[in-house]
Write a structure and sequence with these properties.
This protein is α+β, with helices and mostly antiparallel strands and 103 residues long. The chain has helices spanning 6-9, 44-53, 82-96; strands spanning 12-15, 20-23, 34-37, 40-43, 60-64, 77-81. The chain is globular, with a radius of gyration of 14 Å. It binds zinc ion. Zinc ion is lined by residues 20, 66, 68, 71, 73, 76.
Length: 103
């Protein structure tokens, strides 16, 4: 697939500098975008990934390579195992100095 359905496109704002496709307006309390498709609510990045690449293999989570939780650009998404996802988030924190415990 190279294009998303128009009803999904209407939610996406493309950020040229970052290449991110920001889904709006619906995000949950954790910052993830939510998509409502045919009456069912999905995490938007999972819905876009599945449309673009096909079904997400069982047990895998979708990692944001750009670390932007509400980004749905398929080229910024990768299906990984949960332990890999956690490992990567630790690497990201080390690189940026980000820690949820320091304010
Ligand atoms: Zn992105």
């Amino acid at each position: 697939m190279t294009e998303l359905p128009p009803d999904m496109e209407s939610h996406i704002e493309r950020i040229p500098e970052a290449g991110c496709w920001i889904w709006s307006p619906a995000t949950d309390s954790a910052g993830y975008a939510k998509a409502r498709i045919q009456g069912v609510t999905y995490l938007a990045h999972r819905a876009v990934y599945a449309l673009w690449y096909g079904p997400i293999p069982p047990g895998l989570v979708i990692d944001h390579l750009c670390q932007v939780k509400c980004c749905v650009n398929p080229s910024h998404l990768e299906a990984v195992t949960q332990p890999e996802n956690v490992r990567r988030s630790h690497i990201f924190r080390r690189k940026t100095g980000y820690s949820p415990h320091i304010r």
